[in-house]
Specification:
The structure holds two protein chains of two kinds.
Chain A lengths: L2 E7 L5 E2 L1 H9 L9 E6 L9 E7 L4 H13 E8 L13 E9 L1 H4 L6 H15 L3 E5 L4 E6 L3 H8 L5 E2 L1 E6 L15 E3 L2 E7 L4 H9 L12 H13 L4 H8 L4 H6 L2 H13 L9 E7 L2 E6 L8 E5 L2 E5 L2 H7 L5 E3 L7 E4 L3
Antiparallel strand pairs in A: 1-10, 1-16, 2-9, 3-8, 3-10, 4-6, 4-7, 5-6, 11-12, 12-13, 13-14, 14-18, 15-16, 15-17
Chain B lengths: L9 E5 L9 H5 L5 E4 L2 E4 L9 H5 L5 E5 L12 H13 L4 E2 L14 E3 L20 E3 L8 E3 L5 E3 L7 E3 L3 E5 L7 H14 L3 E2 L16 E5 L8 H6 L2 E5 L10 E3 L6 H7 L7 E3 L9 H14 L6 E6 L4 H9 L5 E5 L8 E2 H6 L4 H14 L7 E5 L5 H10 L3 E4 L1 H7 L21 H4 L4 H25 L15 E3 L4 H7 L2 E2 L3
Parallel strand pairs in B: 11-12, 11-21, 12-13, 13-14, 14-17, 17-18, 18-20, 20-21, 22-23
Antiparallel strand pairs in B: 1-4, 2-3, 5-19, 6-22, 7-10, 8-9, 15-16
The chains are: A alpha+beta, B alpha/beta.
The structure holds iron/sulfur cluster (2 copies).
C-alpha cells in the first residue's frame, strides 16, 4: 500500500510545494512513516543547463571525496552545496543530502560515450554500485527529488518543500513491505529526467531487472520501483519510443484483445509484446512518471491498484485517491478513473 | 562360457489362486517371459524388462513383479551394475546399449528449487476468474522497435517481424523419429499438439505422409544423416530444426537398427529396406560455426525465409558460449537438451556420463546471451528430463521460453520407462515397428492422453503463475527472483543465480 500523486501544469506555471504536502499527508493511511518523497520539475531555473545531482552522503569525508573526483574526471561542477534542511522530531538524519550542479565535458566524452546523458547514467550507476556511503538519488536537469524515511509532513518540512516551485510535482507516501525502509528506498526514484512514484509490487521484477541489467543499468537500491525508471530510460530515451508505446510495452493489452484489433493495430501490439516481453510489468501497480515533456500515469493490466485522474484547465492531477486531488484543487472539474493499462499523459502546451 | 549368466533383475510371479488362465500375459509380453506348457503358464523372469504390460493387462491382478534383491556380495564401489556391465562386455566385447534417459541416481536440481507465491502485499491471481496468458512466440525478435509518424499523426510500426511459431502453451513435444517410434505414436502426438495449439518435432526420420494433415504443427529436423530431407519435407514443416547434438548422447550420431527399418520407414527416410540408419557424429558439411551459419542460411533461402530455423545442441560443459555463437548466427531459437534427455538407443556410457543437467545449462545460456546483449533476439527451448509442470515452471523461471518434452509424452502414451526401446519389442506399441505391437496403440486414444497431459500441465502452470501474482508468461521468463534454492551448494546457486531458501 502506498499513496501517490502526480501534478502537471501544462502551461508551465509553477506551484509551490505546500499543497502537495497537504494532499500527500491526507493519505497517511496509505503510509507507515517509513518513507515519503517529492519530485519537482522547474525548480532550478538558474542552473537549467546543468544536471542537478542529489546525493545522500553517509559522511562528507571519504564518500564525498570519491564522488567529487569522479565528477571532476567527467566534467565540471559549477556549484555544490548541502541541500538545506530543518531538523524534524520525526526524522533521524542518517544521511547528509547534498546537491551538485554538473555538466559533463564534451572533450572527455569524445569517443567514450554517446551523449551527456550516457555519462550521467554511467556516473549514477558507478556511484550507487561502487561508492560506499554515497547514493545519487536524483540526476535530472532543472528538477530534483527530495526524500527520506518519515511521514510526508515531516519529510516536507525537513526539506522545506514549500520553498520550491515546480510545474510538475510527484509525491509518494510509503508503506514498505518487501524492502527495507531506508532513505534511498523512498520514492520517487529517478534517473536523468525520469522520476517514478509507484504504489504496488512488481512481481516481474526479476525479469525486468535482468532485462535492464543487460543494458548496463545496475539495480542497487533494493526495491522494485527503481527498475521502472530504468525501463523508461531504456525504452523512452535509448529506444526512442513515444510515451504511449512505453506504456504499451510495460502494461500491454491482453492477447485476446489484440486478436480482436484491426490487422495493423494487432500487428503493432504483437510487435511490442514480442520485442519488449521482458519489459512487461506484472503484479499490482499504479505508477506516475515524470518526464522531460510531461507526466505519464498508468496501472497494471487488471488494475489491482487504484488511480484517479482530475483535470482543471491546464492542470492535470493523478492520484491514488480523489480526496487527495480535491485537497490540491478544490475546484477540480473533470474527475475519472482510467481503465487498466490505459496511459494518462499530460504534456506541456508548446 | 566360463562367465555364466548374470542374475535376473526382476522376479515375476503369478498368484495361481487368482489366475483364470486366460493367456493374456502370454499374448501381451513381447519379450517372451510367459509361455504355456500343457495347462500351466511358465514364467521366465530373466527376460522381463518391467515394461508392466502384463501387469496392466491381467484381468485378475494376478501378476506380481518385484525387483529381485542383489545376489552379489554388497559393495559400495563394485555395484551390481558395475559388475554386470563388465561381465556383459567380457562376454560380448561390445558397446553396451541402453534406451531412455540417464539412469544414475544423481541429485535432481529441479527438486531443489522452490517456486514463490503471494501473500497479502500483492494479490495472487485466480486463473479461473482472470486472464492468464501462456501464449508464447518462438523465433527471432527485434532488439528494439522503430516507429514512424504518418502525416495524420498516427504512429506506425516501421520494424518488420521475423516469422515466429505461435504456441498456446509453452510445452512442445521433442523430436522422436519415425523409426525410433511407431507411426501410431507420432500420430497420437501430432493430433494432440494440433488440438492443444502447440508443436512437435519429427526427429530425423522424415515426415510420413499420414502426418501431412498435421504439418502446420510439425518441426522438421535436419540431422547429420539427412534422412528424409528434401525440399518437400522442408516446405511442409512449420519450422526447421538442425540437430547438432542430443542430450542422451552428446558428441555421437544416431543409430537405428536395421530391424526397425521396415518398408514404411525405409520410404520415409529414403534409405534401403532393412539397412541400419547410421547418422554420423558430425554433419559432414559443418566443421565450424561459419559452416552452421551457411546451413541455416541455405535452409532459409530454400524456404524463402518463411520459417524459423532452430539449432539443437546437447548441454555440454561449454554450452553457453556455443549457444551464444548460435544466437549470433541467423538461428531463431536454440534448443538445449540436458543430460537426462531420453533416447531410443545410446551407448550407456554416454547416456549416463556425458553432458550436464539442463537446469544449469538454461541458467548459464540465458546469462551468457544477456551478457552479450542478444537474449531477446533468440528463443531458448529447454529439454531433457522435464517431468512435471513444476519442472516446466522452473525451466521458464531460469530463462527458457518453452520446453520440449519427450519421455513424459511417451509415458502419457503408456511407456513404463523400461529402457528397452532399441530392441523393437516395445510392448506398448511405442518404440517398435512390429505391426502387431504397433496396432496396440490407438492413435485416437493416444492423442487424448497426450493432450490431457498438455492441458493438465497448462492448467497447473497457470495456477503456479497466478499464485505468484503473474498473469503473463513473459514475466515468468528468466524471473529467477521467484525461485529459491534448497540444499544446493553455493557454487550451483551462483550458476543458477538464485538465492537460497529464506533469503
Ligand atoms: S493375464 Fe493374468 S489371469 Fe490371464 S493368464 Fe496371465 S496371469 Fe493369468
Ligand atoms: S517406449 Fe516401450 S520399450 Fe521404450 S521404455 Fe517405454 S515401454 Fe519400454
Amino acid at each position: 500500500m502506498c499513496g501517490i500523486i502526480g501534478f502537471i501544469d501544462r502551461t508551465k506555471s509553477r506551484m509551490d510545494g505546500s499543497s502537495i504536502k497537504a494532499a500527500l499527508s491526507l493519505m497517511n493511511e496509505r503510509g507507515s512513516g517509513d518513507g515519503a518523497g517529492y519530485a519537482a520539475y522547474g525548480i532550478y531555473p538558474e542552473y537549467a543547463d546543468y544536471y542537478a545531482l542529489h546525493v545522500f552522503f553517509d559522511n562528507l569525508a571519504e564518500p564525498k571525496k570519491k564522488v567529487d573526483e569522479l565528477l571532476q574526471q567527467w566534467g565540471e561542477i559549477v556549484h555544490q552545496e548541502e541541500i538545506p534542511t530543518t531538523p524534524q522530531p520525526g526524522i533521524r538524519k542518517v544521511h547528509t543530502p547534498w546537491r551538485y550542479f554538473f555538466k559533463p565535458s564534451g572533450d572527455l566524452m569524445a569517443g567514450r560515450m554517446d551523449s551527456e546523458k550516457d555519462v550521467v547514467t554511467y556516473i549514477v550507476m558507478e556511484v550507487n554500485a561502487n561508492v560506499k556511503g554515497a547514493t545519487i538519488f536524483s540526476s535530472g536537469k532543472n528538477m530534483g527529488v527530495f526524500k527520506a524515511s518519515g511521514w510526508p509532513e515531516d519529510v516536507a518540512n525537513f526539506y522545506r518543500i514549500e520553498n520550491y516551485k515546480g510545474y510538475i510535482w510527484l509525491a509518494h507516501n510509503r508503506y514498505p513491505t518487501n524492502s527495507p525502509g531506508w532513505w534511498g528506498g523512498a520514492h520517487p526514484f529517478n534517473l536523468l529526467n525520469w522520476s517514478v512514484v509507484h504504489n504496488g509490487e512488481i512481481t516481474s521484477y526479476g525479469t525486468n531487472q535482468r532485462y535492464v541489467e543487460g543494458y548496463g543499468y545496475k539495480c542497487t537500491l533494493f526495491t522494485d520501483t527503481e527498475v521502472v525508471a530504468y525501463l523508461f530510460d531504456l525504452l523512452g530515451r535509448q529506444h526512442e519510443l513515444p510515451h504511449e508505446m512505453v506504456v504499451r510495452a510495460l502494461a500491454p493489452p491482453f492477447w485476446d484483445d489484440i486478436d480482436r484489433m484491426p490487422e495493423k493495430e494487432a500487428e503493432l501490439n504483437k510487435a511490442v509484446r514480442l520485442t519488449y516481453g521482458s519489459a512487461l510489468m506484472n503484479g499490482p501497480f499504479a505508477i506516475v512518471v515524470g518526464t522531460d515533456d510531461g507526466i505519464v500515469g498508468f496501472t497494471d493490466r487488471i488494475k489491482l491498484r487504484p488511480l484517479v485522474v482530475g483535470e482543471n484547465g491546464s492542470k492535470l492531477y493523478i492520484s491514488s485517491e480523489e480526496a487527495a486531488i480535491r485537497v490540491l484543487d478544490p475546484e477540480v472539474k473533470n474527475i475519472y478513473t482510467p481503465r487498466a493499462g490505459e496511459p494518462i499523459i499530460g504534456r506541456f502546451i508548446e | 562360457m566360463t562367465l555364466g549368466s548374470v542374475p535376473p533383475k526382476f522376479k515375476v510371479t503369478i498368484d495361481r489362486d487368482e489366475c483364470m488362465d486366460c493367456g493374456r500375459c502370454i499374448e501381451n509380453c513381447s519379450y517372451g517371459v510367459y509361455r504355456r506348457e500343457g495347462d500351466r503358464i511358465l514364467i521366465e523372469s530373466r527376460k522381463c524388462t518391467a515394461c508392466l504390460r502384463c501387469v496392466s493387462m491381467c484381468p485378475r491382478d494376478a501378476i506380481t513383479l518385484t525387483e529381485k534383491p542383489v545376489d552379489y556380495r554388497s559393495h559400495p564401489l563394485w555395484t551390481r551394475e558395475a559388475r554386470e556391465d563388465i561381465i556383459n562386455q567380457a562376454r560380448s566385447g561390445k558397446i553396451i546399449l541402453s534406451g531412455m534417459g540417464n539412469a544414475r541416481d544423481l541429485p535432481v536440481i529441479y527438486d531443489r528449487l522452490l517456486l514463490d507465491a503471494c501473500q497479502v502485499t500483492n494479490p495472487s491471481i485466480d486463473p479461473l476468474r482472470e486472464p492468464m496468458e501462456l501464449r508464447t512466440y518462438i523465433g527471432k525478435k527485434p532488439s528494439k522497435l522503430k516507429f514512424r509518424k504518418t502525416e495524420s499523426g498516427d504512429v506506425e510500426l516501421d520494424t518488420k517481424l521475423a516469422p515466429n511459431l505461435k504456441l498456446d502453451t509453452p510445452i512442445m513435444i521433442g523430436h522422436m523419429s519415425f523409426g525410433a517410434i511407431s507411426l501410431n505414436s507420432q500420430l497420437s502426438m501430432a493430433k494432440a499438439v494440433a488440438e492443444t495449439g502447440t508443436f512437435m518435432g519429427t526427429g530425423e526420420g522424415g515426415l510420413h505422409k499420414e502426418l501431412y494433415p498435421y504439418q502446420d504443427h510439425m518441426i522438421v529436423q535436419v540431422a547429420s544423416g539427412r534422412f528424409g530431407v528434401n525440399i518437400d519435407y522442408l516446405e511442409r514443416g512449420a519450422a526447421i530444426e538442425i540437430k547438432i547434438g542430443q542430450g542422451a548422447k552428446p558428441g555421437i550420431g544416431g543409430h537405428l537398427p536395421g530391424e526397425k527399418v521396415n518398408e514404411e520407414v525405409s520410404k520415409t527416410r529414403m534409405i534401403p529396406l532393412g539397412s541400419d540408419a547410421i547418422s554420423p557424429a558430425p554433419h559432414h558439411d559443418i566443421y565450424s560455426i561459419e559452416d552452421l551459419v551457411q546451413l541455416i542460411r541455405s535452409l532459409k533461402e530454400a524456404t524463402e525465409w518463411k520459417k524459423p530455423v532452430f539449432v539443437k545442441i546437447a548441454a555440454v560443459h561449454n554450452v553457453a558460449p556455443i549457444a551464444a555463437g548460435i544466437a549470433r548466427s541467423s538461428a531463431d531459437a536454440v534448443v538445449i537438451d540436458g543430460f537426462r534427455g531420453g533416447t531410443g538407443a545410446a551407448p550407456k556410457v554416454f547416456r549416463d556420463h556425458v553432458g550436464i543437467p539442463i537446469e544449469a545449462a538454461i541458467a548459464s545460456v540465458d546469462q551468457k546471451l544477456r551478457d552479450q546483449g542478444v537474449r531477446n533476439e533468440i528463443s531458448i527451448i529447454a529439454s531433457g528430463g522435464i517431468r512435471s509442470s513444476a519442472d516446466l515452471a522452473k525451466s521458464i523461471a531460469l530463462g527458457a521460453d518453452a520446453v520440449y518434452v519427450g519421455t513424459a509424452a511417451l509415458v502419457a502414451l503408456g511407456c513404463r520407462v523400461c529402457g528397452n526401446c532399441y530392441r523393437n519389442l516395445c510392448p506398448w506399441g511405442i518404440a517398435t515397428q512390429r505391426p502387431d505391437l504397433v496396432s496396440r496403440l490407438d492413435p485416437e486414444a493416444g492423442a487424448a492422453q497426450v493432450s490431457n497431459l498438455i492441458h493438465g500441465w497448462t492448467l497447473e502452470l497457470s495456477e503456479l503463475m497466478g499464485a505468484a501474482g503473474i498473469n503473463s508468461i513473459e514475466s515468468l521468463r528468466g524471473n529467477r527472483d521467484r525461485l529459491r534454492g534448497y540444499m544446493l551448494d553455493e557454487g550451483m546457486l551462483k550458476i543458477l543465480d538464485v538465492l537460497p531458501a529464506g533469503a
